[in-house]
Amino acid sequence: MPDKSMSRMFDMFNNTRQEIWDLFKNPEVSIIDRIVLGSTFDNVVVLRKDIPKLLEAYRAFEADTSLPQQADEIENLYNSDEEFIAIAWNQTSVNCDVWISPDFNDLDEDECRKPYNISKHTDHWDLFQSPSLIS
User: Fold this and answer.
1) How would you classify the pairing of strands 86-88 and 44-47?
2) pLDDT tens, 35-59?
3) What is the pTM of this model?
4) In angstroms, how far apart are the furthest CA atoms of the chain?
5) d(CA 33, CA 62)
């Protein structure tokens, strides 16, 4: 059995990760913390119009993380490319790329699956349209 002093985030035996994930739905948790937590979830996107809210949360989050650097990079993209419509993450290295077309026949000229298209595909969700963040 795992040592009880280990982080609950890594307690694979009792699935206590759910306690952490459920904080996203908890109105007693600050909106900043819920935005940051929600941005780590699978299949989440942040639309261009909501980037300023994401940047504000990343910069206000009180912990020693890479979020300020991520905010800088996202802001650079936001200011330099007016055509991008959203950003998304693949927050783990233990799965395959979720941001490729789910259609195995959707191939480019090199016979590789095309990138995921949020205008066409439906396996994603908009962080800022989540009931957990809408007041």
Assistant:
1) antiparallel
2) 999 999 989 999 999 999 999 999 9
3) 0.82
4) 52
5) 9
